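thread: overnight batch results

M.L. [08:02]
morning all. the overnight job finished for the chain we discussed friday. pasting input first so we're all looking at the same thing
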Amino acid sequence: MGKSKIIVYLLGLPVVLLAFLNLCLVFTPEIGFDALWYHLTLPKLWLLKKQYFFPGGLLYYSVMPRLTEMLFIPLIHFTGTIGPKLLQFLSGLGISYYLWLITKKLNFKVVYQIIAVSLFYCTWLVSWESSSAYIDLFRSFLETVALFYFLNKKWFVGGILLGLALGTKWLVLFSCLIYALVFGWRILLPIGLVSFPWFLISYFYTGNPIYPLFSPLIQNGFQSWWGIVKNFALAPLLFTFPFDDFISPLVGIIFSLSFLGLFLLKGDHRKISLIGILGALSTLILSPPSARFLIPFLPALIVSALLIYQKLPQKLESVIILFTLLSSLIILGLRLFAFQKYLPFLSRQQTRNDFLTSMSPRLPDTFIDSDDYVKNLPPKSRFLIDKLHNLYYFPRDFDHTSWANPNQKYDYLISQNEDTKTVTGKLIHTNQIGIQIFKLND
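M.L. [08:03]
and the structure it wrote out:
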């Protein structure tokens, strides 16, 4: 076996192990905050109520672009959380596949192709999102495939994919602007054709075509000018040590090498660097910034960084191989440590409720029917929920006080930390994590 094959196998092994680990976690209960808040709850409510828009504060995201959540509707109906999580898992693998195709088109050696895949897939953020019901990986998949088609001079197809990506999240407006600057303004035509229904839906329900942007619900969405300057200056450090979700030890180096590509690369190579750098910088003007928003631009950063690295002396190849392998092993070790908490559930020593109850300290304001009390209440009862935020696991149809009709009568109030004197009903049960069930007076 040749040396290059051994290197490919060594670098590929952590990728395969992480993929297997992520696939196992697809079959575990969802505990991600945003997933339980709206990514999963909105499609479940559509199944229960056939209602799309929910006015009020809790589910203000209900009128945003929701392509991924619409795909979740049949998946939740038939599989619960497994289908949505599997979609994200496949998206992570799909991005890696197209990253391989992009590097192949650019005539990377096989060793550098597997380095590129490892630098993307063997990151903490990509790994945990591959086993979650967040939507960032599906958005990133669409944008990565769009980049592939733009590099193949198929601008209309690339624009359609960006339009679909815009149907997942308003933040893709940044991506559309960046791609238009780099690949030409004509791509806005297919983007607009595909994404127009989402603007129309938002306008129909709220009068604002990009709701909730520029609404009272989101008042401080951007950094101050000084904050932007500071974030740009500290970008490599901020990407290496983000305030929320860790990516990998090498992201700051990848960003710095890609930045050099703005000056040292030409043609399509420089365009890739521009996509990566402008996209990365666009995430730093948000308040607060989030490492999750870097994922769509990480493939471009990796490719342009490796284009620069391949220009260095051949003897430095062993350095990038070693660093990539060490980084992937660190992430694999961290993911294995995190995996332990799921073992009782996967080995069927815990039920879903037992697992969620054990996780309740990490799930603030999340409804968990720890003893199945709500599940066993009369099936045609009407439920009103208050003072709880993440409601995917509520087992029945319900209304929340933020959108409920004040003239509607309810049989039960579900809450927590509620003063019994303020409720016109009787407290009939409090489960082991403090969720209260009140029988309301007729």
